[in-house]
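Support request from a user on the community tier.

User writes: "When I paste my structure tokens into the form, the page sometimes reloads and wipes my input. The last time it worked, I copied everything first. Here is what I submitted, just in case something in the input itself triggers the reload:"
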């Protein structure tokens, strides 16, 4: 009897839900552990508050005196809330979040204790975090990076620690984190979109990107997960036979949420509320034990921080409920994996959503401008958009008939397609008054009605327009949204800058009126963006062929997707907009390649261990039992015993065939890994892992999963899919 597995099953079955109830109203809880503007107003002097508010809104610098004020009030507030420590909270290139706690405590010269935290601790820290990946930006002799306060994301208290959101940069000013490039990209789109929005409304002085993410995840009983080295070390199952019942009945999707899961969600949502994460929606997803959580959208920088924070606290709260949260993109074979849709739009300081059609023809022309420009940006940089979601985990998902393909295309729906068709036929140069009236009344003017009917959402599209925002659906569930958000905001910023320049030229040199010029530029954009628009089934083989004909990339694996980042036009793009210089870009490229290699290498070692230490011995034991059965029968029946035990004999042979296959595949895996590791160039190594190492996984899995079906259930060492996915 396999003790570990059976104990885990017993524990899971007997586990009582840990009820979570809070009588506090959500609205009174919200952000009560955040140093919000309201808290600042209470704790800061009027002038200090004004300076900080301005810095948050306009990105201006905060001087040292104000920083001291803020620090003092932040400390008072935090201590009044029971905090004992503070930390600069940052997002290094590992993709996770990092923190190093210091106590609000120091000693004076007399050895007396005092509470200590001033502007210098708030504004800058040296975490000496030299073990984080830096892609060669920091040589070890000057290894120190420092974290610097980001006033645009408010400080919060988690547990008893005041967490101050920060950026992480080297002493030479190079960004060592995911957040710095994001902030720069958000600045770039603010400038570019404001310039274009001014064509329509002079009062616009700022535009911020908005992000509403939708987080998918699995919940697995902690004890069952602990019986599986693959889940514990790689976050996903590397072997495991699909259960007879998976997701074919679609009975989990939007079904009633299991009580253990609901209790976990309640506590998670409660914590989110305290921390100011505006979570709103929860539901079962398609696969058994798969769920989704979505907030109300926010300014993109804050939304990115909130998602990073959420991923961290999910794990902690799950643990209290004896769950393990799986954020891996493909934890189980044969059922859906998890993604993280990024809903994105642009909002002006005047409160207008630039991707939402308005009430007047002019506001609709504004909508069309931002809508078409975004499509054009995606068309120009489709492979970069693909590369922004590249990871070993996500490779299992993209294009696997459950998630958008690795081919990037844009879905806009038939009605908007018809509007673009009409706009494409606008005359060149100056428009006649009749044509203009016609356009305004019959094309642009009709958009709001049109969108109300635009319900035919295409679920297979990686980049879909959904009425008042674009939804980028290819991001992976474990990913830090900063990377896709940096890419998306940068490419759209670039296109908006080009758009503005083209319109200005037509106004100045061709003496066109502003709206004539805009129509003219949009017409050209529409003509050149047809390749990226696709309304059909993104999962179909015919689309892959059609996309190749259109010249769209189909980068199935991470190494080739990452190589896009090193193309000259991409390097120039980020450099020219001040988002990342070439050194910072190369560093990220190398770090992500390295992460890919390490991830597949670890998985291959875990798989080999499981095969050799768990599957093989179990199979041999069972085979030995069969051999004993057969020899017992031989004693009874003599040489004719095979007639009496055909199944035993057959199974003995099957096990021999499968254990041979398993052993030789393990040897092939080790050989492929050694060869890959001998490659001196990182890119070649990554390619080897993708092309030579990963495919061997399938052979091992095939043999192991076949053995799982043959071998006595009571001796199998690993929790099975039916237990992982259906015990709750
Ligand atoms: P779905 O059908 O994909 O579930 P929803 O209408 O429920 O779509 O919205 C999904 C997400 O879109 C939510 O997280 C929501 O906050 C976000 N969202 C809505 N409007 C915007 C916007 N203007 N900008 C960014 N995100 C938005
Ligand atoms: Mg969605």
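"...and here is what came back when it finally went through:"
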């Amino acid at each position: 009897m396999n003790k570990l597995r059976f104990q885990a099953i017993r524990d899971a079955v007997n586990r009582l839900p840990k009820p979570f109830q809070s009588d506090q109203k959500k609205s009174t809880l919200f952000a009560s552990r955040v140093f919000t503007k309201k808290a600042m107003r209470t704790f800061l002097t009027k002038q200090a508050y004004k300076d900080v508010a301005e810095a948050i809104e306009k990105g201006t610098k905060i001087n040292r005196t104000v920083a001291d004020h803020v620090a003092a009030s932040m400390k008072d507030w935090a201590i009044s809330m029971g905090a004992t420590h503070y930390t600069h909270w940052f997002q290094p290139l590992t993709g996770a979040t990092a923190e190093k706690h210091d106590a609000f405590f120091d000693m004076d010269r007399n050895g007396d204790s005092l509470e200590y935290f001033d502007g210098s601790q708030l504004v800058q820290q040296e975490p000496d975090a030299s073990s984080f990946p830096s892609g060669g930006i920091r040589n070890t002799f000057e290894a120190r990076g420092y974290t610097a306060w980001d006033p645009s994301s408010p400080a919060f208290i988690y547990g008893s620690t005041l967490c101050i959101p920060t950026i992480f940069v080297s002493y030479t000013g190079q960004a060592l984190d995911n957040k710095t490039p994001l902030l720069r990209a958000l600045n770039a789109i603010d400038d570019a979109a404001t310039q274009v929005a001014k064509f329509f409304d002079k009062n616009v002085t700022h535009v911020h990107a908005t992000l509403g993410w939708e987080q998918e995840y699995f919940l697995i009983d902690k004890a069952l997960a602990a019986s599986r080295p693959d889940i514990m070390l790689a976050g996903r199952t590397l072997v495991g036979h699909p259960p007879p019942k998976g997701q074919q009945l679609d009975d989990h999707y939007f079904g009633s949420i299991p009580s253990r899961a609901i209790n976990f969600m309640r506590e998670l949502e409660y914590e989110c509320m305290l921390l100011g994460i505006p979570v709103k929606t929860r539901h079962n997803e398609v696969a058994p034990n798969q769920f989704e959580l979505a907030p109300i959208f926010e300014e993109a920088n804050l939304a990115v921080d909130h998602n990073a924070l959420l991923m961290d606290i999910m794990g902690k709260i799950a643990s209290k409920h004896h769950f393990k949260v799986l954020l891996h993109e493909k934890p189980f074979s044969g059922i859906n994996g998890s993604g993280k849709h990024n809903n994105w739009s642009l909002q002006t300081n005047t409160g207008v959503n630039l991707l939402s059609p308005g009430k007047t023809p002019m506001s609709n022309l504004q909508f069309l401008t931002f809508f078409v420009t975004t499509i054009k940006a995606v068309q120009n940089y489709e492979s970069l958009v693909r590369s922004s979601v590249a990871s070993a985990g996500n490779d299992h998902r993209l294009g696997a008939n459950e998630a958008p393909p690795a081919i990037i295309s844009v879905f806009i729906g038939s009605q908007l397609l018809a509007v673009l068709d009409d706009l494409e036929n606008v005359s060149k140069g100056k428009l006649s008054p009749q044509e203009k009236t016609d356009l305004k009344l019959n094309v642009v003017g009709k958009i709001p009605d049109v969108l109300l009917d635009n319900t035919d959402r295409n679920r297979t599209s990686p980049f879909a327009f959904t009425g008042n925002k674009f939804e980028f659906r290819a991001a992976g569930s474990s990913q830090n949204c900063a990377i896709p958000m940096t890419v998306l905001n940068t490419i759209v910023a670039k296109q908006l800058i080009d758009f503005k320049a083209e319109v200005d030229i037509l106004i100045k040199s061709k003496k066109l009126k502003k709206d004539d010029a805009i129509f003219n530029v949009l017409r050209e954009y529409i003509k050149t963006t047809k390749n990226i628009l696709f309304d059909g089934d993104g999962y179909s083989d015919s689309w892959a062929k059609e996309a190749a004909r259109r010249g769209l990339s189909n980068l199935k694996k991470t190494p080739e997707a990452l190589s896009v980042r090193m193309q000259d036009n991409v390097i120039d793009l980020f450099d020219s907009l001040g988002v990342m210089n070439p050194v910072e870009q190369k560093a990220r490229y190398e770090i992500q390649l390295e992460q890919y290699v390490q991830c597949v290498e670890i998985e291959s070692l875990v798989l080999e261990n499981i095969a050799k230490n768990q599957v093989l011995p179990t199979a041999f034991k069972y085979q030995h039992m069969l051999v004993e059965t057969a020899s017992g029968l031989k004693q009874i029946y003599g040489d004719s015993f095979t007639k009496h035990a055909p199944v035993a004999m057959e199974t003995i042979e099957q096990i021999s065939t499968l254990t041979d296959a398993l052993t030789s595949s393990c040897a092939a895996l080790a050989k492929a890994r050694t060869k890959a590791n001998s490659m001196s160039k990182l890119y070649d190594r990554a390619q080897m892992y993708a092309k030579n190492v990963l495919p061997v996984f399938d052979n091992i899995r095939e043999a192991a999963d076949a053995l799982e079906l043959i071998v006595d259930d009571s001796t199998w060492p690993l929790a099975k899919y039916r237990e992982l996915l259906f015990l709750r």
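Agent notes: The reload is a front-end session timeout and is unrelated to the input. The mean pLDDT is 91. DSSP finds 27 helices and 17 strands in the chain. Escalated to web team.
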